[in-house]
Amino acid sequence: MNVLSLFDGMSCGHIALEKLGIEVDQYFASEIEAASIKVTMANYPNTIQIGDVTKVNGKDLPKIDLLIGGSPCQSLSNAGNGSGFDGKSGLFYEWVRLLKECQPKYFMLENVKMKKEWQDVISKILGVNPILINSNLFSAQNRQRLYWTNIPMDGLPDDREIYIEDILESSFDSKYWLPEKNAGLLSKKVDIAGAPDICCIDVYNKRYKKDRKCPTLTHPCHNSIRLLQDGKFRKLTPVECERLQNVPDGYTEGVSDTHRYAMLGNGWTVDVIAHIFKNLV
Q1: β-sheet bridge partners, residue 122
Q2: What's the pLDDT tens digit per position in 42-51?
């Protein structure tokens, strides 16, 4: 199988295919972020990096069997600037261009929940309606995303019942604990009366999560998640974030924590993608 991957920075799609035992002949990745490329090449050295999507020509590629991507969500997201396809999310049309040029048998596009009018634009162009899947069925993370695909799907699995306490590291660097000053400020912002010994704190909404799940991982500059553990506050470690995205432990090693958090926040929940891909077998 030849795969063309657009906007899937650290190649979560490749991890999903490997989990399913689907043989990949050539995996072409369009990515410009250096840290993500470094992580991909450390794990999948045979990946063919083809750079900026706007400069990729389908005629230069062999027959593509599967086109995947998660076009930028910044201007479509409810947390974004509301510019829609006029903003960075307009790169969706580059994905569409390559869909037309490559004519793959299968495709899969991921994006955030968005205004119905924008969702309908994508659905009309692709000829399929999206499936809304929450990663909390597959991991300890609440993450609602839309998936447009022509891959046959037979519904969603039962909840695996994975909770935040199931993905925590037993030992980690003390640097992840919040300094006393910052912990004190957080205590003033969030009422933790009655909170369980281990839970995630949604700092932005000033409350702890009662469902024993983690809020959606995001880019570090927007991240407001903290962990309450035995009366103390800390950040999630990169490995814990990998587990929330079903990424193998240590997969993102070799770059700074900031870059690790960023690519995991921008990445896919691997087992969701594997569930979609399973009928490719």
Answers
A1: none
A2: 999 999 999 9
